[in-house]
Design brief:
Elements: E1 5-9, H1 13-25, E2 29-33, H2 36-45, E3 50-54, H3 62-70, E4 79-84, H4 89-97, E5 102-105, H5 110-125, H6 129-132, E6 135-137, E7 140-143, E8 148-151, E9 154-156, H7 160-170, E10 177-178, H8 179-187, H9 195-209, E11 216-219, E12 223-226
Parallel strand pairs: 1-2, 1-3, 3-4, 4-5
Antiparallel strand pairs: 6-7, 7-8, 8-9, 10-12, 11-12
Helix pairs in contact: 2-3, 4-9, 7-8, 7-9
Length: 230
């Protein structure tokens, strides 16, 4: 069985080599890049399964690298884990809006980082059967297995997180889910994220649903629910 490929993008050589060493020891095939431009060239040569991406890079920033990857059909499915010293809420929200799968703030535990990388890759590969089944409700078609969403028959582009949140809500019409429950369902109970970041994801989903945006209802002080009836 071929080993999963991880691209480590980090401009500080010591950190880059430390990450490479621990990921190789955990059984991954690892390539590295010291800049955003180098990272994009590496992806063009051979697409990895996951990119471990520093945000503060010389030249093309980490956010721009993520934007480029998520903006192309060929690379949209690559998992992205951002690793950065910038841990303010606005930075986390920006990363999630672009479709990042996780966000790790420096300084970090190498054991925790490897565990989070493993969890992201596992979520991508092993979606439970009941969670991967296509769903059609209120004119919205969701196919998690093929990462497709259609509204009134027209395809709508969504990030991995947006699709998972929409599917989680749509599977339980009428049920109110708190922000914490939404995060647990989409990313796992050990994923630290702010209420604001969840709200931003919901805003993005509603915008993409267009005329069907009102299918997702806000329950003030509690969370969100998918409308039960047309």
């Amino acid at each position: 069985m071929a080993r999963e490929i991880i691209l480590v993008v980090e401009d500080e050589e010591d950190i880059r080599e430390l990450l490479r060493f621990h990921l190789v020891r955990d059984g991954y095939s690892v390539t590295t890049a010291a800049s955003g431009e180098e990272a994009l060239r590496a992806v063009a040569r051979k697409a990895p399964n996951l990119v471990l991406l520093d945000l503060m890079l010389p030249g093309v920033s980490g956010l721009d690298v993520c934007r480029a990857l998520k903006g192309e059909p060929r690379t949209r499915g690559i998992s992205v884990v951002m690793v950065t010293a910038r841990g303010e809420e606005s930075d986390v929200v920006a990363g999630l809006e672009l479709g990042a799968d996780d966000y790790i703030v420096k300084p970090f535990s190498l054991k925790v980082l490897v565990s989070r990388v493993r969890a992201v890759l596992r979520r991508r590969q092993t979606v439970p059967t009941d969670e991967s089944a296509p769903l059609r409700v209120h004119g919205i078609e969701i196919n998690p297995g093929r990462h497709e969403v259609r509204v009134a028959g027209k395809p709508v582009e969504m990030t991995f997180s947006e699709l998972r949140i929409l599917h989680t809500l749509a599977r339980q019409p009428g049920w109110v889910l708190t922000r914490e429950q939404i995060v647990d369902a989409v990313r796992g109970a050990d994923y630290a994220v702010t209420d604001r970041a969840v709200d931003v994801q919901i805003v993005g989903i509603r915008k993409k649903l267009g005329a069907r945006a009102d299918c997702i209802e806000t329950v003030r002080g509690v969370g969100y629910r998918f409308r039960e009836r047309e």
